[in-house]
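Hi all, long-time lurker, first post. I run a small reading group and we've been trying to get comfortable going from sequence to structure in the token notation. Rather than ask abstract questions, I figured I'd post a concrete chain and ask someone more experienced to write out its structure so we can walk through it together at our next meeting. Sequence below, copied exactly:
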Amino acid sequence: MLVGRWRLADLFAMVAAFQAGGDPMCTDHILYPVIKAMICKYPDIASSLTGPTTPCDALSFAMGLTADPAQLGRVWKTAVEPSVCDPGTAPGEDDCSS
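-- Answer (accepted) --
Happy to help. Here is the structure in token form:
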């Protein structure tokens, strides 16, 4: 079982990596309001382990997983990709407050 929590802020930062119609999912994309509404509707857990009254600001995640044993091999270093959105349209700058 693979489980965890995904902070909404981190999820928003990843939204631009998804594409619809060949275009990145920036805040000016026609489908972005739908995606944002889905993200903001379902936070069900706090991103930190502080207490039962802490506001929910993350999504819980769980899935069954079957894996083979890992094999030693090369370590790949991934480069941080530059923002694909125009200035002011990056989902990582958005949140559920508006």
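A couple of things your group might point at:
The helical segments are 8-15, 32-41.
Residues 32-41 form the longest helix (10 residues).
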